[in-house]
Amino acid sequence: MKFRTLAFVAAENETAQAARRRLCALYPNVAPDGADVVVALGGDGFMLETLHRALPRATPIYGMNCGSVGFLMNGYDETRLPERLEAAQQVTLHPLRMTARSLDGRVQEAVAINEVSLLRETRQAAKIRILVDGVVRLAELICDGILVATPAGSTAYNLSAHGPILPMGAALLALTPISAFRPRRWRGALLPHDATVDFEILEESKRPVSAVADFTEVRDVAKVTVREDRSLNLCLLFDPEHDLEERILAEQFTS
After folding, report:
1. 172: closest CA among 196, 147, 150, 198?
2. What pLDDT digit, counting tens, does each position of 168-219 carry?
3. What is the 3-state secondary structure (H, E, C) of 119-169?
4. What angle do CA 240, 244, 246 make, to 5 degrees?
5. Rounded to 5 degrees, what are φ and ψ at 234?
6. Residue 214: CB partners within 8 Å, gap ≥ 6?
């Protein structure tokens, strides 16, 4: 794909800022709102921020690692950038939409590219009922929390909570408990990507729970609904040798 205009955005760390200054000196650049492609310089956290900012226009994002892990980033290279962008492979992401109703009746929506997580707010464990497509699948989960992760987010918080890694094209969502106490042996579930998951908070005043969609937190929730939003498309660009699917597969065999 031919990209005519580029925008360079960078994380706040000096490595990323210095890289942006060098790239701006090498290549013509415009503001992100007017660009055909945004080049994000930083780590995976900054990529997540950039994807959220790109949501209204669905501008393709090409990341170059100037951070730590950089799982969603390409390697940093200042040379032949237009040619690399033209040869890049596209991966389309569909985020999650969270609808959270708090104890006072207020309803708030938010979008999550990685995961929606429910977390206990106090020393007491949360009690949560789980419904999938309107059917009660777990009448009571006693836990520190639970999350729903996309394939893109399955290698983040979900993996830390011992959830499964999902290939990008798997059309699945990961439902993963966080420190489950009862049922103790329940390790979560794999759901079809079009499933609607409802979380009902039990004993909500005694055991308050917050809901977090990437950067958006809603405190003291009574019910949370999570579903994939196919109306939103996010485009990530990867060098052919980066091969995100291969990295996700390989991650499942690391110790």
Report:
1. 150
2. 778 999 999 999 999 988 999 999 999 999 999 999 999 999 999 998 999 9
3. EECCCCCEEEEEEECCEEEEEEEEECEEEEECCCCCCCHHHHCCCCCCCCC
4. 95
5. -120, 135
6. 48, 52, 110, 111, 112, 113, 114, 115
Distance between CA 127 and CA 33 in Å, rounded? Answer: 44
Instruction: Give the amino acid at 134.
Output: G
Strand partners, 112: 96
Whole-number Å distance between alpha carbons of 187 and 164: 10
Quickly tell me which residue has 């490595």 as its tokens. Answer: 15
Is the CATH number of domain 6-93+233-251 3.40.50.10330? yes
- Supply the CATH classification number for the domain 96-228: 2.60.200.30
| Dist. CA 138–CA 229, nearest whole Å | 24
Q: What is the dihedral of CA 212, 196, 173, 232, to 10 degrees?
A: -70
Residues of the chain with pLDDT under 70: 1, 242-244, 255
Could you give the residue numbers annotated as active site?
Answer: 44
